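Structure representation:
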Amino acid sequence: MSQLRTLGELKRAGARPSSGVKDEMRRNLLAKLSAGAKLFPGILGYNESVVPRVVNAVLSRHNMILLGLRGQAKSRLLRSLTTLLDPLVPTIAGCEIHDDPFRPLCRRCRDLVAERQDATEIAYLTPEERYVEKLATPDVTIADVIGDVDPIRAARGGHDLANELTIHYGLLPRAHRGIFALNELPDLAGRIQVGLFNILQEGDVQIKGYPVRLPLDVCMVFTANPEDYTARGKIITPLKDRIGSEIRTHYPTTLEQGVAITQQEAWTERGGDVRIPRYIREVTEGIAFAARRDKKVDKRSGVSQRLPITALENAVSNAERRALLRRETPIVPRVSDIYESIPALTGKFELEYEGELMGGENVGRELIREAVGETFSVYLGSVDLRAVVAYFDTGGSLKLPGDVSSEDFVSHLRRVPGLLDHAALLGAGDGEPAPVVAAAGEFVLEGLYAQKKIGRSEERGFFAVERREVEVDLERLERMRRMKKQVN
């Protein structure tokens, strides 16, 4: 079909008018399901929940809305709907709204086909060209979405302003025969929502007071935050009724899903030998899981999946900087590098009153410590590390310098009896390079600190847990409880 360049050639080849974009998406989806092909590449963690509902919506030829908190891949899922469109579809060359050659809508194309008949030139559209996306904001106008009269076009063509040839079409008509995606739908003014509904339901709209018939062939998809569904604005009842399927998205339900998403999205390929231990990935992901259940973090705002992605990128960057300064390879991030990624954490969550009192950085440190403790329990929870704890209980201490080479760092670690005996469980067995061993040894110490078996401070490094430190922790918790009661 890509070789056919006129309407007459299309007719002789047996082409027929388009059946509609929703029928096209349904047909292609059925073919993929029959072939067992992967649906929506790059979308992870939704195979058992969101994807089946999206599939049902497409098979039902529904317009749909995705409801979910920030960072739940709503926009990516909408953009992946283009995989259900045909590779190429014919359109009248030069048409602003991608008219079907057999059923043109705009006045320009109707006149062109009437004049040139089978000699009308044909162009072709790719799936990406048939996807139009708009972020809804309160200042969006009906001209942005539907269109407006262009006085310059009227003057140049000598047309009356009521003539359809003077119309400059908006985003929705330009999505004709494609997908129109509108993000944050509740933020759109009510009068614009009326325009959306009217043009879809009735096929007509008024531009500058002149009625225009535009029976558009569009699949409408929307996104919204469920907490903003009625907070900042609302969806008018006729438009809400027109949306066939309302689909809830969610954050990863398991740590494995979260690790897979972060591994896919995070930029960690830095052109050198970068090795990210599995336990470091799980600690980074565990921060997000800890934040989503922490009472000091606002649940209504959510904790974006961008948090572990940016945290891991920052941790790798800190390890990259250290490796460059010490001229060593491979680049291996440690737990201390995750602590250095706090600037990538604090902007990713909103704090409740209790969290505001503590401060974003302190909350971030607590979340990292909690994530380290949980990951430590998985990898080394059943390992006997009493010799390590005894070293500190008998007066030993260890201050790890951050500006030395990994070999020197490991030599400091070896001062603690039994610290590296189980490093093989962390992928740091015999023959592994010093940066890998250094990361494993530090993880053991940070894990014992997270479980409050040893202490740690910026001045003293790692040391024995002191009774006073435990009392201070208990006092702080009791103080937080009292403040919360006062607030309530």
